[in-house]
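in:
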């Protein structure tokens, strides 16, 4: 087989067009079309001034800069320096920029100034899909994922550790100042570098101590990112944030599988309990519809959440975290309530009488019932049912009836079949964002900045889905209301 000649100095026979080198269905063309459809109102909602100044040198158009950032988030490139190189060297970016080459400072200034307004891009992607009838509101799933921040977990300290660091830093500063004292000579014009760094660390520790002392006992703070918290994920502890997302499947009109993020947010909670209602409200606000059924994992399960969903007419399928305890022969569900005597009957025939009301730290009230101590100690189930010498007790909260109803609902075959769709609906969302969009770790610091980064990642995820629909002709871009 002959070998093709290699000539790196090969010249073009005719002047090439960059547009000819980008395929008609390339994702970068969709990004350009998506941004180009923005009218003056859309730019105003994003907080972007598209009119150039009368005086001064010409600036890069906002369409160019926003398109670069959006395509970068879609393809896992979120560094302004990497984007600068891409705008000079990669064909899709060269076409997107019209062969203009913004530097990293220009890209960074645009991102820093407008990233809060760019949060609204998520809602715009949702409304774009809705305008084409591509969102299925029969089902949605909500979940959270622990994502590392731009901070090392080893830089997280509690009050005691900060006080020890303060003492060490103060001693180091005293030693450095003693070394730099002059015998009647003029002091140096600026602080030595080591002394300057030590004093900067001292100020940082001082501010961190003040913040930790104002919080509850056991509070910690990260010296690199004060808003990052220690979270336990699948790979161990990370200093980061809890990323929340609600995903809905594409409708049958799409002609293909896939999902769309209808709401996203960032929080510092170590579990998901308090995020269920805000995420459902955000999804309803973004779409203007309420999904028929929401699927959530056990991390969201609680009586107050079930009660609130009932009030809003929202059906939620979610299992309990203590599934193993539910299978036990002496779970409180097997105790029978007698409304006439206000007592519970245990599986062994002993009665548990009302004792008192218990108030927890959150102000919730539960009724406590307890069996006679002598009866429990003589019972053959003592040790399996309870080990309390005072006798078996039950705490019945105001949402107990809802909890029991939810358990019965989750045991139904139809509910199990629906709930089985949760994993295939929401978990791939986090997998794609982490593996293909580089969202395993945030690049920015601070809760507000990280929230903007997360919402732009969610918008980019939706655009990746919309690109597929655009390629097969299901979606045609046209102006939509935000």
């Amino acid at each position: 087989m002959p070998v093709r000649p290699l000539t790196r100095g090969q010249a073009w026979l005719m002047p090439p067009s960059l547009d000819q080198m980008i395929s008609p269905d390339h994702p970068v063309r969709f990004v350009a079309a998506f941004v180009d459809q923005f009218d003056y109102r859309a730019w105003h909602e994003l907080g972007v001034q598209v009119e150039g100044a009368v005086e001064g040198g010409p600036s890069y158009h906002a369409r160019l800069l926003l398109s670069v950032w959006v395509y970068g988030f879609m393809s896992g490139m979120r560094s302004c320096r990497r984007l600068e190189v891409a705008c000079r060297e990669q064909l899709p970016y060269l076409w997107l920029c019209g062969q203009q080459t913004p530097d990293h400072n220009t890209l960074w200034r645009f991102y820093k100034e407008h990233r809060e307004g760019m949060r609204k891009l998520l809602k715009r992607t949702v409304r774009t899909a809705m305008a084409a009838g591509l969102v299925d509101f029969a089902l949605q799933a909500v979940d959270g994922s622990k994502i590392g921040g731009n901070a090392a977990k080893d830089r997280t300290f509690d009050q005691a550790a900060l006080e020890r660091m303060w003492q060490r830093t103060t001693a180091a500063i005293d030693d450095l100042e003693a070394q730099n004292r002059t015998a009647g000579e003029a002091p140096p014009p600026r602080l030595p570098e080591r002394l300057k760094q030590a004093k900067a660390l001292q100020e940082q520790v001082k501010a961190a101590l003040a913040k930790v002392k104002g919080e509850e006992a056991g509070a910690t703070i990260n010296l690199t990112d004060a808003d990052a918290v220690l979270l336990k994920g699948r790979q161990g502890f990370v200093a980061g944030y809890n990323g929340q997302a609600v995903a809905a499947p594409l409708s049958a009109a799409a002609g293909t599988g896939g999902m769309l993020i209808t709401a996203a947010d960032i929080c510092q909670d170590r579990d998901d309990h308090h995020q269920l209602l805000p995420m459902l409200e955000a999804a309803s606000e973004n779409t203007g519809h309420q999904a028929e059924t929401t699927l959530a994992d056990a991390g969201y399960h609680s009586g107050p959440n079930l009660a609130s969903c009932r009030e809003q007419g929202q059906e939620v399928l979610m299992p309990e975290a203590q599934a193993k305890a539910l299978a036990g022969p002496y779970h409180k569900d097997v105790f029978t309530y007698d409304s006439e005597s206000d007592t519970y009957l245990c599986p062994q025939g002993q009665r548990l009488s009302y004792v008192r009301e218990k108030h927890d730290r959150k102000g919730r009230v539960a009724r406590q019932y307890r069996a006679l101590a002598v009866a429990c100690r003589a019972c053959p189930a003592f040790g399996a049912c309870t080990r309390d010498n005072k006798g078996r007790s039950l705490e019945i909260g105001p949402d107990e009836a809802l909890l029991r109803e939810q358990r019965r609902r989750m045991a139904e075959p139809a509910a199990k079949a629906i709930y089985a769709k949760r994993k295939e609906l929401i978990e791939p969302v986090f997998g794609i964002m982490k593996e293909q969009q580089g969202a395993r770790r945030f690049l920015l610091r601070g809760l507000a900045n990280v929230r903007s980064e997360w919402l732009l990642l969610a918008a980019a995820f939706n655009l990746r889905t919309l690109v597929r629909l655009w390629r097969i002709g299901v979606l045609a871009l046209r102006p939509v209301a935000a």
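note: DSSP finds 17 helices and 13 strands in the chain.
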